[in-house]
Design a protein that fits this description.
The complex is a heterodimer of chains A (265) and B (425). With 265 residues, chain A is an alpha/beta fold. Chain A is 37% helix and 11% strand. Chain B is an alpha+beta fold and 425 residues long. Chain B has a single domain, classed as Cytochrome-c3 Hydrogenase, chain B, CATH 1.10.645.10. Chain B is built from 14 helices and twelve strands. The chains are: A alpha/beta (265), B alpha+beta (425).
Chain lengths: 265, 425
């Protein structure tokens, strides 16, 4: 479409889905107030869920979902080769998401349980960056369309790309949401990266950390707080481990625990 | 003249998830017509093992990005049956309102963004923004309303937060609900325009006698819980869902298949309308009449129209629910929950058909065993056999080409509005 007789330059976008619920790519069709403007600002070259056009000349690739099968590895590598900018969109792409919980189980046994004598091909769930280099991560389950819009605005009009270093608590305070801890509930807000505007606490659910860690959270203080409020370490760990964003933190904590044990031994 | 046709669709577009269509007609003989689901398995039923009951709804919502409210509803319902929890009346109304929001959101997305392009000769709905801006604005308006209903009632439309074991986390503000109601009133007009648009579409004529399975409406058109029945006369209690599904593994699919009285059966909007036609809101029935949709309709392409009929139904029902809810502003929406060992099954009609969650709990409130049977899992076999029958019927049509057959096959699968990632879970 021409504006003032000039064809506007729009970034060529490809949206690709792997292992997941496709909720993140669905967000791209939400936020209806700005949907027209959003679609006008970009050129959708490939977006299987929405269009039967299947171009390969995209510059920006939005990846939705985690990687859990060899053919997905191949497909992802091809996309990485073609795209100048690769964005991991959502917790599955960024961390593996809830699909990662599968890795705690014996996969052969899982396959037998679900498929009996006809097992299906699968492998431990990986995040996108475990397979190819990622240029930008937008965490969240689902991703916030706001953040995707800001990436587009940055690409098209050079508007600044904000990243949230601080924890979620600040966004609850800004919305006047009463702290879930006051209701006797557990909430990962103090250690989770802000940017979603805290819809879960506002809706009556303590944060489950889908956006992963804030910059340099104070884990010691957080564990002291949760212990004080009566939550045992196992419960806190389970919640932290849910979306995969804190996996490296949990691994480190386990190593520290082992080191302490070794010291005392 | 002998007919030879070849269709190879890899990762069908404008459906949720990954599936392939393969058709071969050689010298007038159908050698192959397949619908194969190749979506990666995620093993949710395994991941649920050992999870605390507070995590079940949050985890299973992630089975699907479109019908996450439906999964969450089925999940908490199964847990509540297992623990013997009865939720407050206000919570039941809120859950139904959230369900209506999801139905509207999903159907509008499917009708305008996934299905309509084929009827308009387009590859996607994106060009509509420029060539039919009124239609695009209308679709956006309806979808926004539906998403807002879900946001207000369930806390978020994709992966809800307010649907919890024991009820709903909070009662929305009265003024917010009434504002939604006034927008629903406008939606009635928008849906009339939608019906006018869809009447200009050429719906392929194809029929294959099919068994339809759905919840049985006792006091109204059914969405949450109740007995399950089929158009061939089979009927079971919610807890006996296994007898209604008979799930089995097939070689070429990561999704399982199901059967009942025949080699396959269908669930979804068309199944619900066929089975519960007389429980539809009169305004919704009027739309069905406009399209000559009456029980029992065996044309799978009419699932699109059934979805339109349901949009009208849920818009009217939502207004009624809001009227009831604003009359009860200060009531409890949540009861305390004490976990115990037990098993429960929750059945919910999500946009694509009847969904079952089945959990077995230990005394500490952790899941020992879980089973989920998804609507599209129940449809995949029927889609496959429909494809076979349709290709047989239409291959010999004058002027049939590979492209035309590919479009017809794609449209057939799209009519079911399959949720493939869901069906594999």
């Amino acid at each position: 479409m021409k504006h003032l007789n000039i064809e506007r330059r729009r970034p060529k976008i490809g949206v690709f889905d792997f292992t997941g619920c496709e909720g993140c790519e669905l967000q791209l069709a939400n936020k209806e107030d700005s949907l027209g403007a959003f679609l006008s600002a970009i050129e959708v070259v490939s977006f299987r869920e929405v269009s039967s056009d299947n171009g390969s000349d995209y510059t920006v690739a939005l990846i939705d979902g985690a990687i859990s099968r060899p053919d997905e590895v191949e497909r992802l590598k091809e996309i990485r080769q073609r795209a100048q900018l690769l964005v991991a969109m959502g917790s599955c792409a960024c961390f593996g998401g809830v699909n990662r919980l599968k890795n705690a189980y014996d996969l052969d046994e899982a396959n037998r349980e679900v498929y009996g004598d006809c097992p299906k091909q699968t492998m431990p769930t990986m995040s996108v960056k475990e397979v190819v280099p990622v240029d930008l991560e937008i965490p969240g389950c689902p991703v916030c369309k706001d953040e995707v819009e800001r990436v587009v605005q940055h690409l098209v009009w050079d508007l600044p790309l904000p990243t949230y270093a601080y924890p979620l608590c600040l966004q609850c305070k800004q919305r006047y949401t009463v702290c879930r801890f006051e209701f006797g509930e557990l909430c990962l807000g103090p250690i989770t990266r802000a940017g979603c505007n805290a819809p879960c606490p506002a809706g009556g659910l303590g944060c489950w950390g889908c956006r992963g860690p804030a910059e340099a959270p104070n884990y010691d203080e957080f564990f002291a707080l949760t212990a004080e409020r009566g939550f045992d370490r196992q419960t806190v760990r389970e919640r932290m481990g849910f979306f995969g964003g804190f996996d490296h933190v949990l691994a480190e904590l386990e190593n520290q625990q082992e080191a302490i044990h070794d010291d005392h031994a | 003249m002998t007919i030879t046709l070849k269709v190879d669709v890899h990762h069908l577009a404008r459906v949720e998830g990954h599936g392939n269509i393969k058709v071969r007609v050689v010298d007038g003989e159908l050698t192959e017509a397949r619908w194969d689901v190749v979506e990666t398995p995620r093993f949710f039923e395994v991941m649920l093992k050992g999870k605390h009951y507070t995590a079940a709804g949050i985890l299973t919502a992630r089975i699907c990005g479109i019908c996450s409210i439906g999964h969450c509803l089925a999940s908490v319902r199964a847990t509540e049956f297992a623990f013997g929890v009865e939720i407050p009346e206000a919570a039941a109304k809120l859950r139904l309102l959230a369900k209506h929001g999801e139905t509207l959101q999903s159907h509008v997305l499917h009708l305008f963004f996934l299905a309509a392009p084929d009827f308009l000769g387009l590859h996607s709905a994106i060009p509509l923004k420029d060539i039919k801006p009124d239609v695009f604005a209308l679709a956006a308006r309806l979808k926004k309303l539906a998403n807002d209903i879900c946001d207000v009632v369930a806390g978020r439309t994709t992966h809800p937060v307010s649907i919890q074991v024991g009820g709903m986390a909070r009662m929305p503000d009265k003024h917010t609900l009434l504002d939604l109601k006034s927008r629903l009133e406008r939606a009635v007009d928008d849906l009339r325009v939608t019906a006018d648009l869809f009447r200009t579409f050429e719906i392929p004529e194809f029929e294959r006698e099919t068994e339809f399975v759905s919840l049985k409406g006792e006091r109204g058109y059914p969405f949450i819980g109740g007995r399950v029945f089929s158009s061939d006369g089979v009927e079971h209690a919610e807890a006996d869902y296994l007898a209604m599904t008979n799930e089995y593994v097939t070689e070429n699919n990561t999704s399982k298949w199901c059967k009942l009285s025949r080699e396959s059966f269908a669930v979804g909007a068309l199944a619900r309308v066929n089975n519960n036609y007389h429980r539809l809101h009169p305004k919704a029935r009027a739309v069905a009449v406009l399209f000559d949709l009456a029980p029992v309709c065996y044309n799978p392409f009419m699932n699109n129209i059934a979805q339109l009929v349901e949009c009208v139904h849920v818009v009217h029902e939502s207004m009624r629910l809001i009227d009831e809810l604003v009359e009860m502003p200060n009531v409890e929406t949540m009861v305390p929950v004490t976990p115990r060992a037990g098993r429960g099954v929750g059945a919910v009609e999500v946009p694509r058909g009847i969904l079952y969650h089945d959990y077995e709990y230990d005394a500490s409130g952790r899941i020992v065993k879980a089973n989920c049977i998804i609507p599209t899992t129940q449809n995949n076999a029927n889609i496959h056999y429909d494809l076979n029958a349709m290709v047989r019927q239409m291959a010999g049509n004058t002027g049939m080409t590979d492209e035309r057959m590919e479009l017809l096959c794609s449209m057939l699968v799209r009519s079911y509005d399959p949720c493939i990632s869901c069906s594999v879970h």
